[in-house]
Amino acid sequence: MEFASKSLQLGRRIRHLGRLAQITNVFARHGLWSFAERLDLKAWLTPAQMRHAQELSREEGSTDDQEALELKGLPARLRRSFEELGPAFVKLGQVLAVREDLLPKEYIDELSRLHSGVLGLPFAAIHQVLNEQLGAEKLKAFASISEKPLAAGSVAQVHEATLVTGERVVVKVQRPGIDQQIKVDLSLMAELATLIEKFIPEVRTARPVAMVAEFSRAFLGELDFIREAGNIAKITRNFAGVSHIMLPKVHWHLTTPKVLTQTYLEGLPASAKEKIIASGLEPALLVERGMGMFLKMVFIDGLFHGDLHPGNILALPANNVGIIDFGLCVHLGRTTRENLAGLLIGLIDEDFNRAVLNYVELADPPMDFDVKAFEYEVGNAVAPFIGLPLEDLRSGRLFWDLARVAAKHGAPMPQDLVIFIKTLVTFEGIGTNLDPGFDVLKSAEKFTTDIVAEVYSPENLRRQAMTIAHDVGQLAKHGPFQVRRLLRAALEGDLSLNLKSVDFERIAVSLDRSSSRMSISVIIAALIIGSSILTFARSGEGLASMPMIGLAGFALAGLLGFYIIFSVLRGK
């Protein structure tokens, strides 16, 4: 059993190394070899793979200045690399495309061109997944399934179907084998993020390791259709008393981790303004209801749809609003919602000092964070907006300005809050398209009373008081014991501090390499001296009279010498 487990781990590691070599070669082919070299990826490749990557990088450009080649059109090269590397990297690029707080505009513009649309799989492959997931008996519940997909993505594709009851549904089917490929890539992304944080200090403040960890959790969640179905059910319950918000109903008996069956919502996409008006619907009312829906999800329920682009918001008869595609849903804790509410109310009341304090709480800055400098820069960023009427204030720009300043000072926003800002800005664009007089903050002002009532309700305050009392009680109970342990360790000389530094690790690695080479050099010297003594002790003339052990010592010393020379040159 243990042997089988180790064999499985070895096989997985071999696949990872093979994929890493492929990733490095793709970067090289698009003129990004120095990026891979800076991360010391060459240590993970065989000499043949490394030569191949360098050759690809040389073939890609026609200039002798490789650095100039890579800087020219770097965003486009990065986008093409992500496209070639597949779904996980495409998704990562799409996530980075909304990080206006971290990336320059040229990167945002280029990565925004990434799309996960691919050619649809043959229906035979889709039917095979349906048969494996549902079984032949449950498949009889479908009267028909359209072979032409409504939408095809790199992870799943969607087909319209009709149940034997006559109800129209949509079936979302995951591509076969895609989950294993994505898991391998996510694991490698985590290792690459660690190397980036280690070897590229200038991006360390962006917290690439934490960013990839958040991205991995969200993406793995999207691969589980049971989780998506659960989010639909929870949001449906949250809007049970709101008649003008419509969500699809999940058919649980036809849903598995890789197959999701839900009712078909037929409506007009939010971007079709002319058709909406021609249908007799009221764009301004639709926008108001949609904004109320979003604010309720964020501040009251703590669970919101994180991908509210125009294709996922539908205008339905009677000015009802429909929502589809719940693959990306974000949970917000109570403390986060309170700080978000404080930020929003501070902006509405033009209390920018309050907004800054709540923003700092949301960003969770490091210990060396300079709050004064941050407040000063935020003051300069929001100064042009002070005194402006809400209708003249574009909140999307203001939110991103705050995020950029925070990231500059080493406190980038967590991914969940970036999704909130992105969704808010996207909805602002949808709203202004349907209703030119719409503004997010002006609309949100109508809901602040409900937000304050929820955040500072007696029940919420009672719950917070109970939590604080419990924490204080635990501190009073265990604090003296911990202090006694600390003092005893100090008096007995057992007190120790564990320090971890990336620079220390690099120094340790360099010292380890140097000591290894020094040890080999001593062995070479000993072999040469010993072989020389044996050689002079020969019994006759000529090469044949030399002791074989002496010749073997010279040969081994020569091989070890060549190895040291090769390792030194390769290290350079």
Can you describe this structure?
This protein is 62% helix and 8% strand. Strands 1, 2, 3, 4 and 6 form a five-stranded antiparallel beta sheet that branches. Among the domains are: 2-114, no CATH class; 281-456, no CATH class; 502-571. With 572 residues, the protein is an alpha+beta fold. It is globular and about 105 Å long.
Please count the helical segments.
23
Strand content: 5-15%
Quick one: biggest sheet? 5 strands, antiparallel
Summarize model confidence as the mean pLDDT: 78
End-to-end C-alpha gap = 44 Å
The count of β-strands is: 11
Shape call: globular
List the defining traits of the structure above.
11 strands, about 575 residues, 4-stranded mixed β-sheet, alpha+beta
Quickly describe the structure.
With 572 residues, the chain is an alpha+beta fold.
Helix and strand arrangement:
Blueprint (H helix, E strand, L loop, with lengths): L1 H28 L3 H6 L8 H14 L5 H6 L2 H12 L1 H10 L8 H7 L11 H17 L2 E4 L5 E2 L3 E8 L4 E7 L3 H22 L8 H15 L2 H14 L6 E2 L12 E5 L4 E2 L3 H6 L4 H19 L1 E3 L7 E4 L3 E4 L5 E3 L2 H15 L3 H12 L7 H12 L12 H14 L6 H20 L5 H5 L3 H8 L2 H34 L10 H35 L11 H24 L1
Parallel strand pairs: 5-10
Antiparallel strand pairs: 1-3, 2-3, 3-4, 4-6, 7-9, 8-11, 9-10
Helix pairs in contact: 1-3, 1-9, 5-6, 5-7, 9-10, 13-18, 14-15, 14-20, 15-16, 16-17, 17-18, 22-23
